[in-house]
DNA sequence: ACCTTCCTCGCTGTTTCTGGGGAGTGGAAA
DNA sequence: TTTCCACTCCCCAGAAACAGCGAGGAAGGT
């Protein structure tokens, strides 16, 4: 596992990429350059409409998707609540589902060591950049220590490219909410009922309803809960 | 404006920081090391409850806060919908409010050039790391070209520290949700009605209601929308 | 073995939300 | 100037969610 990696060259190659498919080739080359078992970029999207590329076996990837493992995968859950890159050992593997997931992952060739970098983009986009390997703890610690920063940059550039290519698919860049709409969504997210929200904002409940409706429309939401969820995941409101 | 910057030393210093106040000293030192006019870290929070540190004058900062400029600042608006670091020249300064904001910023000593890096953390956290300077376009382009990557890493480490210090404020942890509860919350967050969720999960609506109620209880939520919002902000569900 | 948690199903009545109308102001942009 | 958009207010009927009560079986951990 090693050491002489030309970061500049990698990032330049990444920058020069012009098609989504090329990322797969690049990540394989990266895996070889770093001499680790696996390297994966994984754009997580609850809709199941996820994009990813990497060096896991097709069988594992298929199984992961079919079983909806992104819901119990401690790597995803853990990274989602963190900002730091995180070593898999520091995650919570205590639940039964997590342990089962772990043994199965090992059986499918995923390394016993792992290092994952959470990445977040606009509109609540969330992705992971993961390096995995089979080795002892000390060796792995040296590796992450040595290459952590490089991996952050690579992850950043990877996501940049992925966003660039996927941008066309996501025309749903919702209009920004008006201040009043933000207020309404925020208070609703805090558990207030419509009556309470209207009271807090000193407006009639009818007026409030107009805000909720227009927010729902702007966000393409089906109901209030959906609208609040979307507003949150797009970072339009903070609770 | 310059060139010999010891990135390792900077990041180590950042990592060793143990108090929020120290970040202010570090950012001043950084500004001097990079020989630019201003360097600012700005945690943007829609609530107005923002944290920031940097080298802008106190007058400008106060005015910014009082006037709620974060709502019209093209840097914030532009960065919020981007993932790339962005040069200020590429932002949209066309609106009247933006032009007024710009001339005023210049008057308060903000540089005519700027480079801002959006950073996103868990729960929709959003921050900016900005470098600003007074110089010509070509010189500025050289600078951003030369130091863009370093700045990304510095921004990352800055935000890491800021999150670390702020985390202590909100240690609320709740019991984990059961798989079925997660399913229910997730589908509700996706805009499904109770009937649709029950149908999707192939359970009766009555059963579904029990899940929602127990999730609400576990999360300390007042209603379904609140429960979904809390589940999201705690990273228990991914939408 | 016991206790806890999870999963599943049922009833009733009350409160709240939703969707469909409508109308008028003021400010900012084209 | 006209045309947007944000903000404010109003009514009504049907649909949906809420609160509170109940039950039993399966699986896991102490």
From TrEMBL, chains A, B:
Keyword terms: DNA-binding, Transcription, Transcription regulation
One of the record's GO molecular function terms: DNA binding
Pfam families: Autoind_bind (PF03472), GerE (PF00196)
Span of domain HTH luxR-type: 170-235
Keyword Transcription appears in the UniProt entry: yes
DNA-binding recorded as keyword: yes
Alphabetical list of SMART domains matching this protein: HTH_LUXR
GO biological process: regulation of DNA-templated transcription
SUPFAM superfamilies in UniProt: C-terminal effector domain of the bipartite response regulators, Pheromone-binding domain of LuxR-like quorum-sensing transcription factors
InterPro entries in the record: Sig_transdc_resp-reg_C-effctor (IPR016032), TF_LuxR_autoind-bd_dom (IPR005143), TF_LuxR_autoind-bd_dom_sf (IPR036693), Tscrpt_reg_LuxR_C (IPR000792), WH-like_DNA-bd_sf (IPR036388)
CDD domains assigned: LuxR_C_like
Superkingdom of the organism of origin: Bacteria
Protein's UniProt name: Regulatory protein, luxR family
């Amino acid at each position: 596992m090693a050491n002489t990696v030309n970061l500049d060259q990698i990032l330049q190659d990444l920058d020069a990429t012009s098609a989504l498919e090329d990322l797969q080739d690049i990540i394989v080359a990266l895996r070889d350059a770093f001499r680790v078992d696996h390297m994966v970029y994984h754009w997580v999207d609850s809709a199941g409409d996820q994009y990813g590329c990497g060096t896991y076996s097709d069988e594992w990837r298929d199984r992961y998707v079919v079983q909806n493992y992104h819901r119990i995968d401690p790597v995803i859950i853990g990274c989602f609540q963190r900002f730091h890159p995180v070593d898999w050992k520091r995650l919570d593997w205590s639940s039964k589902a997590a342990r089962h997931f772990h043994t199965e992952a090992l059986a499918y060739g995923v390394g016993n060591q792992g290092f994952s970098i959470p990445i977040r983009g606009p509109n609540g986009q969330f992705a992971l950049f993961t390096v995995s390997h089979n080795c002892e703890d000390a060796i792995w610690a040296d590796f992450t220590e040595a290459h952590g920063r490089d991996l952050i940059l690579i992850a950043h550039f990877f996501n940049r490219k992925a966003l660039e290519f996927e941008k066309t698919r996501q025309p749903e860049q919702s209009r920004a909410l008006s201040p009043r709409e933000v207020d309404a969504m925020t208070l609703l997210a805090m558990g207030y009922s419509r009556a309470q929200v209207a009271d807090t904002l000193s407006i009639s409940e009818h007026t409030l309803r107009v805000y909720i409706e227009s927010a729902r429309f702007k966000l393409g939401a089906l109901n209030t809960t959906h609208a609040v969820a979307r507003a949150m995941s797009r970072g339009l409101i903070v609770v």
